[in-house]
Design brief:
seven-stranded mixed beta sheet, cysteine-type deubiquitinase activity, protease, OTU_dom, Ubiquitin thioesterase OTU, five-stranded mixed beta sheet, zinc-finger
Length: 318
């Protein structure tokens, strides 16, 4: 019987098929051919665990591994290239699109030796869709914002007894019309709905307070996002910081408390760097009508009343 296995490697994502009574050697050879890597290390499961491909085990069947529908993370087991000689000019470092401005790249990741990799911060574009992009990327959606906005809006309209004006702060038709627009912020209501739609627990770590808000408790798997006051980013696990974001691990079992601990440690580091906006007293301005208010509560109220969703923080000087 053919089984399907997903692969995540430095060269991107792929899918392979193999007979469930194939040998481990046949699987490893297939993975090497698909990923174009001659020497590999393999990990799978939640939390990630190593797949032992010692020569003495390669002749065994893969049936016992129960890999149907599994994702295998593939890393190169070759040693890193030698450092440049003194005569060689060092290469110009490439900018990291996932590094916040004013923060060094090594401050946005936390080494996790026990898991053989790093917990990393993946910074989302500041485009009023950061929450949708953070969650959508965690579940593997490309260009997720409009897809998720429409799904949330449809869900609200399909559940009128649960999502009515008293909950939404606006009539459902008005609220959903705003939510379908790309410049409208998403928040707790949308996270709760996305948790139900995708059957995932969503943990949102607040940088300022280090509080963890859980949406969809009791589900089997979770994703983790980071909230910095007026912005959402994504938490991921990378086996190597040079790997592309496409091979990140972004889902974990909900009984894996270790990953939440590591993500909170990273949030604490970012807290020390003041990677958050204090929403209790900052002054906000509507970029549509120039309305001025204080904090996200005022902004949310203004958005519900007017449909305006583009805001910026005002800098007050003496």
């Amino acid at each position: 019987m053919l089984i399907q296995i997903s692969l995540r490697s430095p060269n991107g994502q792929a899918r392979v098929q193999i007979e469930d009574d194939a040998t481990l050697r046949e699987l490893v050879d297939l993975i090497k051919a698909k990923t174009e890597l001659s020497n590999v290390s393999l990990k799978y499961g939640y939390p990630l665990k190593s797949l032992d491909i010692s020569p003495s085990l390669l002749g065994g069947s893969i049936k016992e591994l129960k890999l149907r529908g599994e994702t295998i993370v593939v890393a190169s087991a070759d040693p890193p290239p030698a450092a440049p000689t003194p005569q060689s000019a060092p290469a110009e470092p490439k900018p990291n699109p996932f590094t916040p401005k004013g923060i060094e790249p090594d401050e946005t990741s936390l080494e996790w030796p026990e898991r053989g990799g790093y917990v990393v911060l993946r910074v989302m574009p500041d485009d009023n869709s950061c929450m949708f992009t953070a969650f959508g990327g965690a579940i593997g959606l490309e260009n997720p914002s409009q897809i998720l906005r429409n799904q949330v809006a449809d869900y609200i309209l399909e559940h009128p007894d649960e999502y009515h004006e008293a909950i939404l702060g606006a009539k459902p038709q008005s609220y959903t019309a705003c939510m379908r627009q790309m410049d409208t912020w998403g928040g707790a209501i949308e996270l709760s709905i996305l948790s139900d739609i995708y059957n995932l627990e969503i943990c949102s770590i607040d940088v300022k307070s280090l509080r963890i808000d859980r949406f969809g408790e009791g589900k089997s798997n979770r994703v983790i996002i980071l909230y910095s006051g007026i912005h959402y980013d994504r938490i991921a696990f990378s086996m190597d910081l040079s790997y592309p974001v496409e091979v990140d691990v972004t889902r974990w079992a909900t009984d894996d408390d270790a990953v939440l601990d590591k993500a909170t440690q990273l949030a604490r580091r970012l807290q020390g760097l003041h990677y958050y906006t204090d929403t209790t007293d900052f002054v906000i301005k509507c970029e549509v009508c120039n309305w001025i208010g204080q904090g996200t509560r005022d902004a949310a109220k203004h958005e519900r009343e007017t449909g305006h969703g583009r805001f910026g923080e005002m800098q007050i000087t003496d």
